[in-house]
Design brief:
The chain is mainly alpha-helical. The radius of gyration is 28 Å and the shape is elongated. It has a two-stranded antiparallel sheet. The chain has a domain at 39-133. Helix 1 crosses helix 2 and helix 1 (38-70) packs antiparallel against helix 3 (103-133). It contains 3 helices and 2 strands, in the order ββααα. This is YGGT family protein. Keywords: Membrane, Transmembrane, Transmembrane helix. Residues 1-23 are annotated as: Disordered.
Length: 148
């Protein structure tokens, strides 16, 4: 005996099998509730994930620049030059903001500040997107019930 629950193409309500002759056993029906805002929530989550990833990536590159500078990395190395070019592109203009006596301290302050700002930008953007794009708490819940 096969049940429609075992067939992945079956999209109707799911039913628990009933053993014939058992008194007091009722058939249990599982209903699927369709959320009309599900695709909207998925799109918002994807957009916020992309923003968080990019801002986090920029902050990580800036921190790697700080670590390479503190460790006296060879600037002619391919990886070090890539990190240097990329970090100067995403430094948001902070690369000359502080000018203490030590060059290493200047890199720590300038690029550290830029990394913090990137993290704040990512958090602020995702907060605003989630706050403005998701429906409010006073929305009417509608669903379609179909039992075969």
């Amino acid at each position: 005996m096969t049940y429609p629950d075992n067939d992945p193409r079956y999209s109707g309500p799911r039913r628990e099998p009933v053993v014939p002759g058992m008194p007091g056993e009722e058939e249990v029906v599982h209903e699927r509730v369709e959320d009309t805002n599900a695709s909207r929530h998925r799109a918002i989550n994807v957009i916020c994930s992309i923003i968080t990833f990019l801002c986090g990536l920029f902050a990580v590159v800036l921190v790697v620049k700080i670590i390479l500078t503190l460790a006296n990395a060879n600037p002619s190395n391919g990886f070090a030059s890539f990190v240097n070019d990329f970090s100067s592109a995403v430094s948001l203009g902070f690369d000359g903001l502080f000018s203490p006596g030590s060059e290493k301290m200047a890199v720590v302050l300038n690029y550290g500040m830029a990394a913090l700002v990137w993290l704040l930008i990512g958090a602020g953007l995702t907060y605003l997107i989630r706050r403005l794009a998701t429906p409010g708490p006073r929305r009417e819940v509608r669903y379609r019930r179909s039992v075969d």
